[in-house]
Amino acid sequence: MLLDGNRIVLGTCYYPEHWPESMWREDLARMLANGIEVIRIAEFAWNKTEPEEGVFTYDFFDSFLDLCEEAGMKVIFCTPTATPPAWLTHKYPEALNCDLSGVPYRHGLRRHYNYNSPIYRSLSARITQKLAEHYAQRPCIIGWQLDNEFNCEVNVFYSEADSAAFRVFLKDKYQTLEKLNAAWGTAFWNQDYTDWAQVYVPRQTVGGRSNPHQELDYLRFISHSARSFAKLQSDILRPYLKPGDFITTNGLFGHLDNHAMTAESLDFLTYDSYPNFAYCMDTDHSDPTALYDRKWSRNLSETRAASPHFGIMEQQSGANGWINRMEAPTPRPGQMTLWTMQSIAHGADFVSYFRWRTCTMGTEIYWHGILDYSSRDNRRLRELKQIHAMTEKLAPVAGAAFKAEVAILRDYDNVWDAELDVWHGRVEEASQKALFAAAQRTHTPVDFVYADHASLEQLAKYKVIFCPHATIMTPACADMLTQYAERGGTVVFGCRTAYKNATGQCVMDRLPGLIAPLTGADIPEYSFIAPDAGRVTIDWDGTELEAAVFADLVEPVDGVREAVYTSDYYAGSGALVSKAVGKGRAYYYGTAFTEEAARVFMEKLGVASPWADVMELPESCELAVREKDGQAYAFVLNYKKDCAKVVVKRECADVLNGGTVCGEVVVPGYGVMVIKA
Amino acid sequence: MLLDGNRIVLGTCYYPEHWPESMWREDLARMLANGIEVIRIAEFAWNKTEPEEGVFTYDFFDSFLDLCEEAGMKVIFCTPTATPPAWLTHKYPEALNCDLSGVPYRHGLRRHYNYNSPIYRSLSARITQKLAEHYAQRPCIIGWQLDNEFNCEVNVFYSEADSAAFRVFLKDKYQTLEKLNAAWGTAFWNQDYTDWAQVYVPRQTVGGRSNPHQELDYLRFISHSARSFAKLQSDILRPYLKPGDFITTNGLFGHLDNHAMTAESLDFLTYDSYPNFAYCMDTDHSDPTALYDRKWSRNLSETRAASPHFGIMEQQSGANGWINRMEAPTPRPGQMTLWTMQSIAHGADFVSYFRWRTCTMGTEIYWHGILDYSSRDNRRLRELKQIHAMTEKLAPVAGAAFKAEVAILRDYDNVWDAELDVWHGRVEEASQKALFAAAQRTHTPVDFVYADHASLEQLAKYKVIFCPHATIMTPACADMLTQYAERGGTVVFGCRTAYKNATGQCVMDRLPGLIAPLTGADIPEYSFIAPDAGRVTIDWDGTELEAAVFADLVEPVDGVREAVYTSDYYAGSGALVSKAVGKGRAYYYGTAFTEEAARVFMEKLGVASPWADVMELPESCELAVREKDGQAYAFVLNYKKDCAKVVVKRECADVLNGGTVCGEVVVPGYGVMVIKA
Amino acid sequence: MLLDGNRIVLGTCYYPEHWPESMWREDLARMLANGIEVIRIAEFAWNKTEPEEGVFTYDFFDSFLDLCEEAGMKVIFCTPTATPPAWLTHKYPEALNCDLSGVPYRHGLRRHYNYNSPIYRSLSARITQKLAEHYAQRPCIIGWQLDNEFNCEVNVFYSEADSAAFRVFLKDKYQTLEKLNAAWGTAFWNQDYTDWAQVYVPRQTVGGRSNPHQELDYLRFISHSARSFAKLQSDILRPYLKPGDFITTNGLFGHLDNHAMTAESLDFLTYDSYPNFAYCMDTDHSDPTALYDRKWSRNLSETRAASPHFGIMEQQSGANGWINRMEAPTPRPGQMTLWTMQSIAHGADFVSYFRWRTCTMGTEIYWHGILDYSSRDNRRLRELKQIHAMTEKLAPVAGAAFKAEVAILRDYDNVWDAELDVWHGRVEEASQKALFAAAQRTHTPVDFVYADHASLEQLAKYKVIFCPHATIMTPACADMLTQYAERGGTVVFGCRTAYKNATGQCVMDRLPGLIAPLTGADIPEYSFIAPDAGRVTIDWDGTELEAAVFADLVEPVDGVREAVYTSDYYAGSGALVSKAVGKGRAYYYGTAFTEEAARVFMEKLGVASPWADVMELPESCELAVREKDGQAYAFVLNYKKDCAKVVVKRECADVLNGGTVCGEVVVPGYGVMVIKA
Prior knowledge:
The structure is a homotrimer.
Chain A: E1 9-13, H1 21-33, E2 38-41, H2 46-49, H3 59-71, E3 74-78, H4 86-91, H5 118-135, E4 141-145, H6 160-174, H7 177-183, H8 212-237, E5 246-248, E6 250-251, H9 258-265, E7 269-273, H10 296-306, E8 310-316, H11 335-345, E9 348-354, H12 379-393, E10 401-402, E11 406-410, H13 412-420, H14 422-441, E12 446-450, H15 456-460, E13 464-467, H16 475-486, E14 490-493, H17 516-519, E15 521-528, E16 537-540, E17 543-546, E18 550-556, E19 560-565, E20 574-581, E21 584-589, H18 595-604, E22 615-616, E23 621-628, E24 631-638, E25 644-654, E26 660-667, E27 672-676
Parallel strand pairs in A: 1-2, 1-9, 2-3, 3-4, 4-5, 6-7, 7-8, 8-9, 11-12, 11-13, 13-14, 14-21
Antiparallel strand pairs in A: 10-23, 15-18, 16-17, 16-19, 19-20, 20-21, 22-25, 23-24, 24-27, 25-26, 25-27
Helix pairs in contact in A: 1-3, 5-8, 6-8, 8-9, 8-13, 13-14, 14-18
C-alpha cells in the first residue's frame, strides 16, 4: 500500500497509551474523515506489553488494533526499544549509555541505553519476538518501525559494554595489535597498545580528545553498533511478517551509515521532517543568506540518497518545542501544506504527520500535533483536509524518480572525518552550504551520491559531479571517478582532496595524492587563509571568485592552469587546474566553494538551470522535478510569505488546479504549483 | 525592640572570631557611637562551640557576650549550620550535597550540606539545642537567626539522602505509584514506575533534563526540605527563647516558599540587600531601560509579600566581591544612604549593615563592610552617622504599612514552572520586567501577592490585580479571582494563563481553561511570535501596543473584544477580551506585556500615578508610600547622580529636613525626600 | 657547543620512530646540508626502550645514534616521561592526573600523569637511569631534555597522590595545623582543620572555588611538584653526563617557578616559540591595538628572565594545528626568518625548528614542520637555508647580553595571585599589556625581573623599575626596592600594591601597607571603576591620562601629590604621589596603566626611546639590542607585510648585508636589519 507507485498516502502518529480508551474510536473516525489512512503506534510503549520483567500482556494493543480493523485504519507497529522501562534500567544499569567521564545517563528522558549491552540486546530481542509473534499477523498492520530515531539525542556511547564491543570490532578489523597500532599511528606520542585490554572507546583525556584514528574507527563502530542493533530486530521480525508488509525506521541522525542499514535491515527509510527548526527561538537568524525551511530539501535529498524510495514518518504539523528547548513558532497558514509538498517533490510518497493530538504531559507538551490539547477542530486540521485533496491530484507523481543532472559526492568516512578534523570540517561546511545554496538559487536540481555505496552506473547518470573535499580518498573511489570522467563525465574536486588514506593518516605522496593522475595537478604549498589576509581573490578567465577558508596553490603537471590567485602572497599561483580525461574532464579547485563560485562552476560547466527553457523563477522559489514514464512533474515551492511571479514559457498542464498555465503565473505566499513540464 | 513600630533600628554584622579579642571592646563602643544598636553574630562559627564531634565549649561567645552586655549592645545569635566543620564532612561525607552527576560538593566554601542527611539533621539539632541551652537567656540576646541564607550558593540537591527523602515526600503526596505515574504523565516515553526504589531526584539524562512533572515536584520538595530543616531548628529554639525574642532568617533565594517558612518557623523574615550587584563588572550593561539598583525595590516588595513586617539583615555598605567573582564598585557617596532609605520606604524598620569591618581573609576579602581593612575612620562610617540621624527623624514611619492599589499576583508553583518551562519562562520574564518598570516609571506603587497564600480579603485591598501568566491554574485560585472581580475588582490576565493544572499537565479543555468562564474568552489558535515576524502590533481603541513573545488569538465567547492584532497573519484576530463580572471586570490579554503596554493598562484602568495630585516626579525617581494611622509618608528616591526636580503641589511637611515643602523641590543626586502626603 | 658564545646554532626536532629506518640516513644528510647541526629526539618514545614493564631494549636508538655519529649530527636526547605507555597507565591508574571531580585523564593524548604518584616517580626514575646508563656516553649526544613541556596541556592536578603530597608539603611549610589554619584564614566560614587527613588539594565546591589561601599554596605546591619531578630526573642524569653536556627542558608553562627549576636542575632553559598562535582561526582578532606575533617578544623576555642564556627548542617552521583546534595559517614568506631573528634578538643563540618532517599520523598532523608530508623540497626549506646563512653572519652576536634600562618587576606569588584573584587579575592584565605595548611602540627595550629571584645588584642595572600591582608584598621586597631607590633608582607602583601579605591575607595597616614608607602615600578610599562611570580622567601637570579598571584615591603623607583625578566623584582626589628616596624616587599611581599612561611615564622618567639618537623607527618595527664587549647590535624587526622606512642617523655597519647604512633604509615586509650601533 505504501510506496506502491500508485498513490500518495497520508498518515499520522498516534499514542493510544496517552488517551482514555473512550477516545480511540472517535479519533480513528476523525482521522479517516480527514484523509489519514495510516497510523504509527507503540514506539514508546514497552510497558504496555511487558510491565514487569518477563511478564507479557497483549490486551492493550489488541483492543486498539481491533478498533483499527473495525474502522479500516492501517497501522505501522513499532518495536519499543527507544525507551527502556524503569524496571529494566534500575535492575540492569549496565544497559545505560554513559558520558565521556563514565557517568550513566539515567531514566527520565529517552534513548538512554547503549546498543552493546548483552542484557539489553537480549531483552530487546525478546520483546521484539513477543510483539512479532502476537501482532504480526493482524490484518491492519502493514509494516513495522524499528525502535525510534536511532542515534537521536546522543550519538556517542561510552559504557563498559561499548568498550568490550569495540575490542571485538577492532579484532575483526585488524586481527593483531600490530596492525591496530600501525593504523592508529600509535608511534606518535607513545600510544602503542600491548594488550587488547588496554584498548577502550575514547575516554576523558587532558585535551578532551583522543587519538584521531581511534576516533575515526570509533565513529565507524558506533554506526556498526546501531546497525547491528537494527539488524537484531529486523532479523527477528522478518520471518513473522505478512507478505507485502515492510520494515522501516526513521532518521536521519549522525554516526550511522543509513545506506548500509537500509540495505541490510529495511525495506525503505523514513525521514522525520521539521522545517520549523529553522525558526527556533535560540537559532541564529543573523545570516542574510540562510535558506531556513528550504534547507530541509537538503535533508530530503540525503534521505533519497540512502533510500531512493522513502516516506516521511514525522512531518511537522504544529509548533516544535520541548519544555526546555527547541521553541519554534506554529507553522503559518500554508506552511504545513508547503512542507508536505516539499517532501513529495523530493520523492516521498508517504507523509505521516507528527502527531494527531498534542500531548498534554511530559517533555514534549510543546511539540504540537495537528490538534491542540482540546482536540477541537482547528486551522491545521482544515489544512490537512486540503492537503489530502492535493495529494489525490498528485497520484500520477507517485513512484516518479527525482531528476537531477548534478550530483554532490559524499561518503561516510569523509562525513565523519569532517566532524573530527577541524581543518576538513571548515572547508566541508563552507562548500556544502555553498553548493546547495547555488543549486537552489539557480534552480539546478541536485542529488547526493555516496561514493562508498555507489556504482559507476549510478555516477554515469550525472553530467557533473562535485566532490568538494574528500580528504580521505581510496583507490576504489579514485578509480571509479577516473572511469566516470573517461566515459564523459565532469568531476570537480575542491581543496584538500585525497591527502589522507582510509586510516585518516596523511599520504606521503605529492598532493593531491591518489587523484593527482586524474587531475594532472600538483600542490607545492597550501595554507589556511589567515584571519588577517582580507579578501583573497582568484581570476578565472576574467571572472573573479573569492577563495574561502583554505588555499591550495595548485599547479598543472599534465593538466591545464585554468585560474590563478590574484591577491596576497598567493598572487600568481594557480588556483584551478583541469585535465581532459577520456571523453570527460577533471578539475581541481584549490579552495572551498563560495555560493558565487559554485554558481560559476555550474554555469561554466553547462549544468545550471536545466529547466530555464520551461520556466523562469525568482530565486526565492525552489524547483524540484520528478519524472515517471518520460513525464516530468515540476514542483515550484514558494517559501516566502509574499507572492512569487513565475513565467511559464510554454503551455503546461497544472496538476493541482487542473487546466493549463502559460505566461506569468502568481504563486501565492507559501504556495505550490505543480506542472507537467 | 526590633520592628516594634516605634523606631527604625540600625545594626551590623560582626565576626568576633575574625579579630583579636583585644579589639572587641573598642569595636562595640565605636558601633554604638555611630548609631549601631544591634549586631548579628556566630552564623559561621560552629567550631567555636563544637571544635570536635561531641565536645562543646562556650567560653568564646561567653566572653564576647559579656562585653556586649557591658557595652549595651544587643545581639542576634545564629545557628551555625550554614558551614559544617571539616571534621563533620570528612567523617560523614553523606552530609554533603552533590551535583547532578553525583559528585559531592566538598569542604572549602559554604552551604555544601544537604537538608536531608539524617546525620546532618541530628548534629544540627544537637548544636542548636546546645546553643539555645547555653545562650538563650543572655540578656543581650534579642533574637535568633536560623542558619544563613537558606538555598544560597546552590538550590538543587542530588545526594542519596535527597532521593530517599524525595520518596518519602512523594509517598506522602501520592500514596500509590499509580497516582504518581498519573501525575507525572509517565505514559509518555514509557516512564512508569513499578517500584518506589526506581524513583530518584532528577539525575543525569541524555537531554540534561528529566520528566517535567517530576521536576516540578522536585522543586516543591526542595522547598519542603529547606523548610523542614528550618523548622527542625526553630522547634528546638522556641522553648528556650526569652519572652519577646524572635526567630528570623535571611533571604531571598530560590526554590523556597518563604511565606510558608515564615509562617511556620519565623517571627519575621529578613532580606539581604546588595543593590550594587546591578553594577557588577560581569553584568550586562547594554540594556538602556534597565533600572539597576532601583530594581532592588522589587526584591523588597517580594520580601514584604512573604513577611509584611521585615528587616534588612545585610544592607550593602561597601563594594561587593568574592575573590573570584561578583566584582562591583564601592557605593558612591550617598548611595549607602539611598539604599537604606529604599529599604525603609518599602517597609523595613530594621536595617543591619554587612559588615562592620571588611574581612582580611578568605573568599570574601572584597565584600567590604563599613570599615576597610585598616578599620580607620572613613567616608562610609561618616555616612552611617548621617543615616542614623535620618532614621531618628523617621521614627514616626516605623510600623507604617506600604500603600498600593495595584497588585501583581504570583504563586510558587508558577514561579517554579516558569523556571522549568521555557515557554512560560519567556513570557513571565518579559511581563514581570515590564509591569515593574511601568509601575516604577509611572510612580504607581505595587505589591506582590501570592495567590497560594492570600485570602480574598487581602486581594480586595487592590483596585487592579495583574496576573500575567499563571500557566498553572487551580480551581481555588480561579474561584478567588472570580469573587474578587464580582466584588468590584479588576483582574488582568496575560497570554498562556491556565493551560496547565497543578501537576504541570496541560488541560484538555478549551483555553484559557479554568478562567474561560471568568474572562469570557476563547483561544482557537496561538503561537510563539516567530523570530522573523518583525514587529507584531495590536490596536486597542486607537492605541497601538506591541505584542511580545507570544500571541494567543483570543476571541470573545460571552466577553467583549477590546483590541485586535493588526499585523502578520494574526491581523484581525482578537488580542484582548474583557468581561464584566459582578461589580468588576476581567481581561484576557493574548500576549506578554511590554513596558508600554503595562503603562497603558494602568492608565486605562485608572490606577496609574495615584499621587499625581500631590507630586509631580521625573521618571528617574521612585515613589514609595507608607501609611500609619491615616498619615501617608511619601518617599522620593533619586537613583541618579544628577539632581531631580520634584514639584510638590500642596504644602507638605518635610520629615527629614523639618519644615514644609511646596512647589519645585530639588532632590540631589542619590538623595531622598520624605514628606507627609 | 650550544650557547658557547661563539656561534648561533640551528637545530630541529626529529622523530626516528615515525619514519622507516630507510629514511634516516638521507634525512640526516639533508638536514646538515641545510644548516641543521643538532637534533632533538626521543621525548615521546618510552616504548622504544621499555616496551613492557621491566623489559629494556636499546637497539632502536643505538641504530639511529650510529647513523648520527656517522653523519656528524649532534643529538639532544630526552627522557620520555611526558607520555607514559599504555601498559603503565592501564596497570597503574593511580599514576594518572584527575580533574577537579576526581575523574582520571586517560591514555590517548599526552601529559596525563601526575608528578606525585610514587609508582610513576619510581618507573620514571628507572627509565631515566637506564637511558643515562646506556646512551649518555655516546659521542653524538651533547645534552639532555627532561620530559617535554612540563605543565603543558594541564597545570592543575587532583589525583589522590597529589593530596597526599600536598599534606607533606604543608607539614613542611607549617609544621602544625594551628599555623596552617592561621595562614589559610580558616576562621572565615568555619573552615578549621583538626586533622591533617581533612586537608586535600582543592576539590569540587558549590562555588567552584576553594579557600583562596589554600589555592595560593596549592599553586605553589604544583610548582614544587613539577620541580621535584624535574630534579628527580636531573639528579639521576647528572652523574652520567660527559663533560660539557647539558641538561635543559622546554617551556614556558604556568604554575611553575622556572627560575628555581633552572637553578636547581638545568644548565639553561629552552623556549618553544610559536608566534602564529596569534593568528589562530579561533583567536579574537577584534583588538586593533594587538601586537600579534610581536607579542612573542614578551615570552622571550620572560624566558630570558629565568635563564639569561637560553635557546629555542621548538621554533615555528610551519602551520600550527591539532586535528581539533589551534588552526593557524602557514607562515608567510619571510615570517620563519623574522621569528628566528626575533628569538636571536632576544638572546637565543640556539634555534631548533619544530620539526623536520610534518607528522602524518596522530593529533598533530597539522602541526607542520619544515617539510610537508611528501618531504619534497619546499619554500620553507629554502628559507631555512637562507636563515642559516644569516646566522653565520650573526656569529659575533653570540653570547651578547640583551640591553635594557627599564625593568618590569614580577614575582611568582603575584603571578599566581593574579590568576586566583579577579580584582588583582584585571589590573595586572591591563597594566602588563599596556607596559609591554608602550615599550614596544616607543622602542624602549625592557627586561622582566623576578623580585623573588633577584638581587639588589640585578635591580641596580635599571634606571626605572615598574612594579605594577604587587598585591602581595614582602618585607624583603619592600626593603630591596627601598635600597634600589636610595641608590638612585626610580620605582613606579600601580594601584593595589601591597595590600596582601604572603598568605594572600589583607594587611590591617593603612594602605599601601609595606610600601607606605617608601612612597609617602596614603589611600583613604578605593574602588573598582564602575561600568557606568564613563571615562575617568587624571591630570598630571597638564597631561591627561585615563584611569583604568581601578581607582585608589591616593594622598601624600610625606610625599608629593603629582596628579589628581578630574572626573566622577574622584575629582580632586590624588591619583599619583611620589617621594624622593635617597638618590632616587618612588611613585604610587592609583590606577592601572593604559598604554598611553605607560608611554607618558617612560617619557617623563626619561627612559623612553634610548636609541633615538641612533635610529628613528616606525611604531610597527621592534627594536631589540644585544651588547657584547662594549659593542651593541641593534635588531630591527618588521612584523608587517609592508616595507618599513628606518632612518639611521649615523653610519653603522650592516651585519647581515655587509657594508654600512646611513640615512633612510627600507626594511622589507617581514624583514630584519641588524646594525652595529
